[in-house]
Design brief:
This protein is α+β, with helices and mostly antiparallel strands and 243 residues long. It contains three helices and eight strands, in the order αββββββββαα. Pfam families: YEATS.
């Protein structure tokens, strides 16, 4: 017992002046099941937490708890392994509490997220479609200040975690073996049947969107300047007046 406690204490040594971050996406994909579906089972939906670029969050997240509406049987759903997702059928929209629990070398406090389940499109004028789902996702980053050296050692080359590359002379503890993190089932969502509908939160994609938005703003400013010139006419130099 003493050896186990000592091992955990050593592996949780903090890395000073260091931050580790995990970009995540969470939300839901909902399919309308058609006119023949039951009134109370009109949609099949999946709520989830995933890596922003579909990486395996199991390297840091131990389990995820989804708290559904009280009308569901067993509304507290625990997902012990990645991918961290839950599929159900229903007809109503409600808020889902999503609680992330981390491995012992990552963080001892859970993180709570909240997502409002969306089944129906914002534009009510168009007909419902069984082929195109309603997709609502949020992007966030989980930041760990001064993470444990065991965690930093484990994720040096892991795509889900952004962590500074440490110098070759830096000493890190060996990886935690208590939970056999590396032996867990791999849980990236790159092969998910829903991946086609996921939002692309990659940095390159965001940069392209920002560049396109900047060009639109610049074009709009140029258009306004032309309109002002047409209204006011070309500016004339002031002529001096003499008495």
């Amino acid at each position: 017992m003493d050896q186990k406690m000592k091992k955990i204490q050593v592996s949780n040594k903090k890395v000073k002046d260091c931050e580790a971050s995990i970009p995540i996406a969470y939300g839901n994909v909902a399919f309308w099941l058609g006119k023949k579906a039951s009134e109370y089972q009109s949609h099949r939906w999946t709520v989830y937490v995933r890596g922003a670029a579909n990486e395996d969050l199991g390297v840091a997240v131990k389990r995820v708890v989804f708290q559904l509406h009280s009308s569901f049987n067993n509304p507290t759903r625990v997902v012990e392994y990645p991918p961290f997702e839950l599929t159900e059928c229903g007809w109503g929209e409600f808020e889902i509490a999503i609680t992330l629990y981390f491995h012992s070398d990552v963080c001892d406090k859970p993180l709570s997220l909240y997502h409002h389940l969306k089944l129906y499109p914002e534009d009510d004028s168009g007909p419902l479609s069984t082929k195109k789902p309603v997709v609502v996702e949020s992007y966030d980053e989980i930041v760990f200040s001064e993470p444990s050296d065991a965690f930093v050692a484990r994720v040096q080359n892991h795509p889900a975690v952004n962590v500074p590359r440490l110098s070759s002379g830096a000493h890190l503890s060996s990886s935690v073996s208590v939970e056999n993190v590396e032996k867990r089932k791999k849980g990236d969502t790159k092969d998910s049947p829903l991946v086609h509908w996921f939002t692309n939160f990659s940095e390159a994609d965001e940069l392209l969107k920002l560049a396109a938005a900047r060009q639109q703003v610049q074009a709009h400013i140029a258009k306004l300047r032309r309109q002002l010139t047409m209204i006011d006419g070309p500016s004339q130099p002031l002529k001096p007046t003499f008495d």
